[in-house]
Amino acid sequence: MPKGSPKVAVDIVIFTIDEGKLKVILIRMEKKPFTGKWAFPGGLVGFKESLDEAARRDLYEKTGVKNVYLEQLYTFGDVRRDPFSRVVSVAYVALVNKNRIKKLTTTAKYTGIDWFNMAKLPRLAYDHNKVAKYALERLRLKLEYTNIVFSLLPRYFTLAHLQEIYEIILGKKLDKRNFLKKINSLNLLKKTRKLEKGAHRPARLYEFRTRKPRIIEIL
Amino acid sequence: MPKGSPKVAVDIVIFTIDEGKLKVILIRMEKKPFTGKWAFPGGLVGFKESLDEAARRDLYEKTGVKNVYLEQLYTFGDVRRDPFSRVVSVAYVALVNKNRIKKLTTTAKYTGIDWFNMAKLPRLAYDHNKVAKYALERLRLKLEYTNIVFSLLPRYFTLAHLQEIYEIILGKKLDKRNFLKKINSLNLLKKTRKLEKGAHRPARLYEFRTRKPRIIEIL
DNA sequence: TTAGTATGTGTATATAGTACACTATCTCAT
DNA sequence: ATGAGATAGTGTACTATATACACATACTAA
Question: Is the same domain home to A114 and A153?
Answer without folding.
Answer: no
